[in-house]
């Protein structure tokens, strides 16, 4: 008995040493992989690699949350303009700028949504002196690898646009992004067509810059946490997952309204957005279906980070739709290659470089031959 007991103890110790050795080996391999990917400028690929190690692989079409930090307890809410006065251009050439850090030092977390009364566009311009004509911004003190276009479908909500620009510009500057804001202005008496305006905004933005990420942003949503980074991951992302109007939770499973982000390669894979939905929010379910049919997963940030304040004034969607029925995937599958970028038709009436955004005034009231018109 004593001999057997000692043998079992030795065997157990041997197995524990083997397990420790295996864990140590895996840890070293992860560090080496991280260093290799970092040197190759594939930081987001390393994030995806870590994600694959710490969670089970989702089924096709299942939503995938971002890999995020755990929210720190007791972080105070700050004004979105706090500490931005610390950003100053350096007296060196652009080629000599240091690389921006992986995590911006200006990110704090929860933000107060404080909109001044009787806000004017002149006041917004004065608060954002580093934003260039057309709504472009580059960090003046470091070189960033993050390039994001923000496309805002718009139909006459002037006050809401001012409030969005007042809040969104400093929010993005805190993240040390190279970004630009494109406002796609629909000017006709036809019903609002957000999907078609998104397609126009994407097409026009990509003519200007080789953006590696595009955020489609409703004009009435203001982000409440700057850890919700406006960069793209390896999957399309629904970003506005916790809106105050809906008690900071999704109205229904599968909801994709508000703020939606993807890479150009994702956009081509879903063939853009539908052009034939005239009216608020009717295209959200089809976008979800297109992501699923394309075989891609859907990312979402943590509910603590993807928080938004919804502006209440003006015309807004009801958000009372139900999820797309599986039985309706078949007709979407048949038409999605015929109702998108390859059927996009519009007339660009003007392109104006405003101090805080690029204004694209478009007439989208007519359709390609055979496509349904506004109803």
TrEMBL record:
Q: What is its EC number?
A: 2.4.1.-
User: How does this chain sit within the bilayer?
Assistant: Single-pass type II membrane protein
Q: Does the keyword Repeat apply?
A: no
Query: Which Gene Ontology cellular component terms are annotated?
Result: Golgi cisterna membrane; Golgi membrane
Q: Where in the cell is it found?
A: Golgi apparatus membrane
Main location per the UniProt record: Golgi
Annotated GO biological processes are: carbohydrate metabolic process
Q: In which pathway does it act?
A: Protein modification; protein glycosylation
Which SUPFAM superfamilies does the entry link to? Nucleotide-diphospho-sugar transferases (SSF53448)
Q: Does the keyword Transferase apply?
A: yes
Keywords per UniProt: Glycoprotein, Glycosyltransferase, Golgi apparatus, Manganese, Membrane, Metal-binding, Signal-anchor, Transferase, Transmembrane, Transmembrane helix
Cofactors demanded by this protein: Mn(2+)
- Please list the residue ranges annotated as the Galactosyltransferase N-terminal domain: 100-233
Its biological purpose? Responsible for the synthesis of complex-type N-linked oligosaccharides in many glycoproteins as well as the carbohydrate moieties of glycolipids.
Q: What class of enzyme is it?
A: transferase
Which InterPro entries does the UniProt entry name for this protein? Answer: Galactosyl_T, Galactosyl_T_C, Galactosyl_T_N, Nucleotide-diphossugar_trans
The entry assigns this protein to a family as follows: Belongs to the glycosyltransferase 7 family.
Q: Where is the Galactosyltransferase C-terminal domain?
A: 238-312
Question: Which parts pass through the membrane?
Answer: 21-38
Q: Give one GO term, molecular function aspect.
A: metal ion binding
Q: Name one Pfam family in it.
A: Glyco_transf_7N
Name of the protein this chain belongs to: Beta-1,4-galactosyltransferase
């Amino acid at each position: 008995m004593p001999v057997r007991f000692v043998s079992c103890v030795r065997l157990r110790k041997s197995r524990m040493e083997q397990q420790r050795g295996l864990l140590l080996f895996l840890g070293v391999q992860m560090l080496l992989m991280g260093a290799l990917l970092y040197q190759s400028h594939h930081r987001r690929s390393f994030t995806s690699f870590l994600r694959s190690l710490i969670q089970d692989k989702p089924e096709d079409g299942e939503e995938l949350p971002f890999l995020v930090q755990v929210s720190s307890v007791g972080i105070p809410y700050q004004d979105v303009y706090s500490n931005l006065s610390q950003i100053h251009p350096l007296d060196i050439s652009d080629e000599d700028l240091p690389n921006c850090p992986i995590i911006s030092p200006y990110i704090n977390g929860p933000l107060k949504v404080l909109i001044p009364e009787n806000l004017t566009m002149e006041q917004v311009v004065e608060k954002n002196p580093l934003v260039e004509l057309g709504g472009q911004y580059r960090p003046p003190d470091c070189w960033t690898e993050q390039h994001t276009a923000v496309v805002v479908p718009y139909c006459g909500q002037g006050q809401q646009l001012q409030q969005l620009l007042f809040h969104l510009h400093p929010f993005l500057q805190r993240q040390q992004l190279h970004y630009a804001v494109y406002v796609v202005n629909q000017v006709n008496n036809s019903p609002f067509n957000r999907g078609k305006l998104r397609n126009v905004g994407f097409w026009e933005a990509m003519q200007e810059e080789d953006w590696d990420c595009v955020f489609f942003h409703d004009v009435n949503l203001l982000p409440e946490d700057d850890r919700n980074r406006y960069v793209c991951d390896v999957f399309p992302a629904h970003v506005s997952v916790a809106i105050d109007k809906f008690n900071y939770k999704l109205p229904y499973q599968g909801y994709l309204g508000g703020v939606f982000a993807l890479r150009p390669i994702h956009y081509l894979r879903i063939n853009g957005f539908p052009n034939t939905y005239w009216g608020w929010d009717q295209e959200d379910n089809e976008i979800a279906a297109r992501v699923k049919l394309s075989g891609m997963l859907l990312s979402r940030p943590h509910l603590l980070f993807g928080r938004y304040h919804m502006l209440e004034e003006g015309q807004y969607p009801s958000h009372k739709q139900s999820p797309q029925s599986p039985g309706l995937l078949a007709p979407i599958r048949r038409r999605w290659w015929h109702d998108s970028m390859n059927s996009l038709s519009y007339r660009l009436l003007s392109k104006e470089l405003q101090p805080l955004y690029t204004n694209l005034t478009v007439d989208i009231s007519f359709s390609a031959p055979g496509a349904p018109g506004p109803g």
